[in-house]
Hints:
This protein folds into two domains: about 1-130, Rossmann fold (3-Layer(aba) Sandwich); about 140-335, Methylesterase CheB, C-terminal domain (Rossmann fold, 3-Layer(aba) Sandwich), CATH 3.40.50. The chain has twelve helices and 14 strands. The protein has helices spanning about 10-20, 35-45, 60-70, 85-95, 110-115, 120-130, 165-175, 195-205, 260-270, 285-295, 310-320, 330-335; strands at about 1-5, 25-35, 50-55, 75-80, 100-105, 155-160, 185, 210, 220-225, 230-235, 240-245, 275, 300, 325. Helix 4 (about 85-95) crosses helix 7 (about 165-175), helix 7 (about 165-175) packs across helix 12 and helix 10 (about 285-295) crosses helix 11. The chain has a seven-stranded parallel β-sheet with strand order 8-9-7-6-12-13-14, with helices on both faces. By secondary structure, the protein is of the alpha/beta class. Its EC number is 3.1.1.61, 3.5.1.44. It comes from Sphingomonas morindae. It holds the Pfam family CheB_methylest. This is Protein-glutamate methylesterase/protein-glutamine glutaminase.
Amino acid sequence: MIRVLVVDDSPTMRALLSSLLGQEADIEVIGTAANAEEARGMIRVLDPDVVTLDIEMPGMNGLDFLEKIMRLRPTPVIIVSGLTRANTDATARALEIGAVDCYAKPQRAGQLLTDDGGRLAGLVRQAAQVRMRGREPSRQMLGSTVRAIGSHDVRLVAVGASTGGVEALTTMLGAFPADCPPTLVVQHVNGAFAGAIARRLDQHCAPTVRLAEPDLPLRRGHVYIAPGNERHLQVQGIGTMSAKLRVADPVSGHRPSVDMLFLSVAQNAAAGAVGVLLTGMGSDGAAGLLAMRRAGCVTIVQDEATSTVYGMPRAAAEMGAAQFVLGLPDIASRALAGGVA
Length: 341
């Protein structure tokens, strides 16, 4: 049984979230809290498996409370957020701090019970499998330590990530120089939050970080984030490369899919390309990374010790797709080195 604590200042939302999760045979809502002070005591006493956390609360806000949870009692947290610009930006910050995932509040509270489709319960089940670690401040500022050996020989970097990926991307891309190779990223996340994640990364990384657009030429010093749930991000062109956004069914259970990105790189940009598969649940990206390796690309996966969830990297490593299995602080320098030993 997965034991959940619901934290939200709205009595209506607490009731709706509790009712929604209470329909699941394997999930139990063990308590609800209206603010951080109540939640802090309940976490201490009840020791929940997963916490759902509203960002906008009276007193201590959700972000400040999340930082305390991650520092003092690491627990899988799902952010429950509205879709205003301020809320999505705060959610991106929460994912960077260490929240496992995010759940978009419906525009009208009554939609929650009829339109959810099991999304919140699915996020809770995934969160319950996450192995939480204490915060490691030394991982936050690594840019000055990166040696971009041979980085101008790297033509393209393709990155896939899922659970825990925003935190990992903040570390990896924060170590990229301003003139990094064109870099494309598929991060599994509700598409409503993709723009906020790109804005957040852009604030903290030397390269320009933006959402990918159709037929956008890929330029050095730029990182392109897959924009949402309805389209796959791919690479097209062999000489001058550009981004392609393709409307298609989910692949490996996801849209956008890491496999779709990696397979397009293997087909169109193998020479001088690097594939990186970061923390995440499931196996999306493993088959695509194997195709990249067979096409002559350099392939890297995050190791178990530094992964929030060692699912996607494990799947790739077990099928022989990874040339390098590295801790998160070492991935940027290896990716920028490309084929240089």
